[in-house]
Amino acid sequence: MKKMIQARFKKQFIFTGIASAFLLAACGSAEATDEEATANPDAETIIVGTGNAYQPFVYLDENEDLQGYDIEVLRAVDEKLDQYDFEYESMDFKNILTSLSADKVQLAAHNYAYNDERGAKYLYGEEAYNNYAHHIAADESTGQVYQSLDDLKGKKVFASPASEVANILETYNAENDDAIEIVYSEANGELLVSGLQNGTADAAILTKFDVDKYNEQFDINLQASDEALKTAGIYYVFQQGDEELQTAVDGAIKELREEGTLSDLSIEILGADYTE
Fold first, then answer.
1. What is the pLDDT of residues 106-146, one digit of tens each?
2. What is the tally of structural domains in the chain?
3. pTM, two decimal places
4. Same domain for 202 and 264?
């Protein structure tokens, strides 16, 4: 910084420049000292496993920076937990929970609703940071509107492997002789919409948020069922036995809800309050 000041100012101001640089350096040192004083040098690093292509919940922006509602909530949580330092690792959705099992990450964040299969393997948080309702969605141009799973008998329906949607359909099929043909696919956004239009699948199970988003984004008219198939809380997921981290994160989420921060983030990023 001293060299920059010397190059910028004329010789007669060298003394002033040096003095200013000294003062700025002193101020910077003071600020750094303050930050160091408030930081916990013994904070435990927590690796958060998350996705990279589920906008606006978790995705990489044009600069390859991790963004999204799930991430912003965790950043607010991290600010409240002096004992932890969160770092983020984005990956394909299918690899997140396997990485949690292998202790490559200690916390999973990707809009996880509870299901029994996952609940047997992992520890779910108890404080939901988001809620959503699943609806059956189909392209209006097909002339079909589906109101229940029974309406989907003999139909092809999109589902991401190991997702909550897959669990809903698989549970129904187990009780109804595999009446629905599940089209397992990671397709979302344009690929999902085009698949509904070209017959790859007859329907998808989406949140109302996603239906509204796709209709606006792609200028189409997906029709959602009048009633939700299932309303689910969304939680962060931890390794079995890690109640210490779970309790800390749950406590921070509860504070964020009480302060109104959770609601504010939902409105800012998702366009409405989905936290209640």
1. 999 999 989 888 999 999 999 999 998 899 999 998 888 89
2. 3
3. 0.68
4. no
